[in-house]
Amino acid sequence: MNSLTIALLTFCSIFGCALFGMFLSKRLPEHHLDNESRDTVKVAAALIATMVAIVLGMLVSSAKSTFDEMNSGLTEMGAKVIQLDQALAHYGPETKEIRNSLRGTVVSVIETIWPEEVDSHPDLATIEKSKAATQMLIAIRKLQPQTDEQRELKSQALQISSDLTNLRWMMIERWHKSLPRMVLLVLASWLAILFTSFGLFARRNATVVMALCLSALSVSGAVLLIMELNEPLSGMIKASADPFYKALEFIGK
């Protein structure tokens, strides 16, 4: 299931629990709803609300860190691509084929991760299986430098190409990193109990129902945000492609 579906299911379940609590309050005996019972339920709800707030805060912070790490990695990759192209350009005209391959690889990455169609999902498996970086590294190793400057530039190009390979695998590892579904299930169960307690002692009028609906919508929005930030290369909130577009502006010049 995608993040929007999970968020909608979360909203429906917790808002439904609030309505169930309002329905349940009319069916329970009076002594279940007296002041002492109400105080006990409020204390229990406060405890659950505290745990929910802590877990939500931690999950949002962790998801934001994942998104920022991916953005930083992509920015570094874009900069490394420009550095590699410049090193190859200074080496000499014999690197023209490698530079063309580098440009083609960058275009392929953009088309794979940021497809033009809104409803398309990035084919990240293609990047994982791609051998373009390895082939480029082999091509650079085959260069035959004739001067000290060329030897230095070849060494620099090899180092940058190796760094790009490492960054590529780091990006792939971050792509495979996902939020454990058990965490979401536990969080959803806490929210269901919490909203049931809200509805249990709530007055049955349109204002209260709207307030509970907006509260459920806000919490579901937080779940959506967590899911989206945890998948920075897919979904509605994506890491920026600007570093690769900027690299394309410099490659070949």
The value of Rg in angstroms is 27 Å
Low-confidence spans: none
Count of strand segments: 0
- Indicate the mean pLDDT: 85
Percent helix, as a range, is: over 70%
Biggest sheet descriptor? none
Order of helices and strands: HHHHHHHHH
How many helices does DSSP assign? 9
**Cα distance spanning the termini:** 44 Å
Proportion of residues in β-strands: under 5%
What gross morphology would you assign?
Answer: rod-shaped
Pairing-aware structural class of the strands and helices? mainly alpha
Written account of the structure:
The chain has 253 residues and is mainly α. 77% of the residues lie in helices and 0% in strands. The protein contains nine helices and no strands. It has helices at residues 3-25, 35-91, 96-113, 124-129, 132-141, 148-176, 181-200, 206-229, 242-250. The mean pLDDT is 85.
Annotate the secondary structure layout.
Layout: H1 3-25, H2 35-91, H3 96-113, H4 124-129, H5 132-141, H6 148-176, H7 181-200, H8 206-229, H9 242-250
Quick take:
This protein is mostly helical and 253 residues long. Helices cover 77% and strands 0% of the residues.
Give short descriptive properties of this protein:
253 residues, mainly alpha, 9 helices, 77% helix
